[in-house]
Amino acid sequence: MQILEVAEGVILSRPDSFNMNQIITSGQCFRWDEIRTNVWKGVAFDTLLEIELLDDNSYLFKCTKETFYSLWYDYFDFERDYEQIKRSVSGDSFLEKAVVVGDGIRILRQDPFEMLITFIISQCSNIPKIKTNVNILCQKLGAYVEDKHGKDGYYLFPTPKALAENPELIASCGVGYRDKYIVNAARKVLTGELNLDHLRTVSREEAFDALISLYGVGRKVANCVLLFGLQHLDGFPIDLWIKKVLDKHYQGLFDTSRYNGYRGVIQQYMFYYGRTLGASYFE
């Protein structure tokens, strides 16, 4: 991958395993949108970014070089060798196809509190509805930031304090029965009873136990938070699509030990390919 600073921002040429459409439709993030053909806009860590595909494999990140390296390089996990991970599936016919179809997927390194609340919202839902609920939550309870270039501003993700102190507003965001879970989780984080930064430093098992002890957080939500918010890449969330894949191609049994250290990356290839095949494939 080559990185070049230009007047408009930073150009990435030939980045391995990087496809914005695949990343933002892989079920791991819900605050990115394709605002026009081959142009995406999103907010992460209170920062707005616009990315444009310039040609077949060059992307313009509309930010300074300093911001790219201090935030976005880590956020998009550019340090990790995803090509090596894809080679590791050799001999598994389903995964060999999955890593081709989802060739540009990366695991985003996202804010753990945002991931906790987002995946609580995700229970028994779907990607479009999750995006809608999260955006409403941000609009009603997040701070508004004026765009410094005079364009439309944007909303930050609500703080633990904002969510802990406004249960009525949360209930008006269309999250249904999950409102109680959101308030409880926010209060645990606000008081320090749940230290998400600390959970990044402990074992996956210890972090999992802490998350699953929360009211309304089950195994799937806990594994999503581990994977997308705490960078425990052995988190392996099992939702409807993963269950369909495991039942059809692995008789319900999938030995993840072969992929120790990056099980969650394999899960993302499975999830993305499964959704691409569609429900009728699994009937």
TrEMBL record:
Enzyme Commission numbers on file: 4.2.99.18
Domain HhH-GPD: 120-275
Keyword field: DNA damage, DNA repair, Glycosidase, Hydrolase, Lyase, Multifunctional enzyme
Catalytic activity: 2'-deoxyribonucleotide-(2'-deoxyribose 5'-phosphate)-2'-deoxyribonucleotide-DNA = a 3'-end 2'-deoxyribonucleotide-(2,3-dehydro-2,3-deoxyribose 5'-phosphate)-DNA + a 5'-end 5'-phospho-2'-deoxyribonucleoside-DNA + H(+)
Keyword set includes DNA damage: yes
Pfam families linked: OGG_N
Hydrolase among keywords: yes
GO biological process assignments: base-excision repair; nucleotide-excision repair
SMART domains reported in the protein's UniProt record: ENDO3c (SM00478)
A GO molecular function held by the record: class I DNA-(apurinic or apyrimidinic site) endonuclease activity
Family: Belongs to the type-1 OGG1 family.
Name used for this protein in its record: DNA-(apurinic or apyrimidinic site) lyase
Source species of the chain: bioreactor metagenome
Lineage, uppermost ranks: unclassified sequences, metagenomes, ecological metagenomes
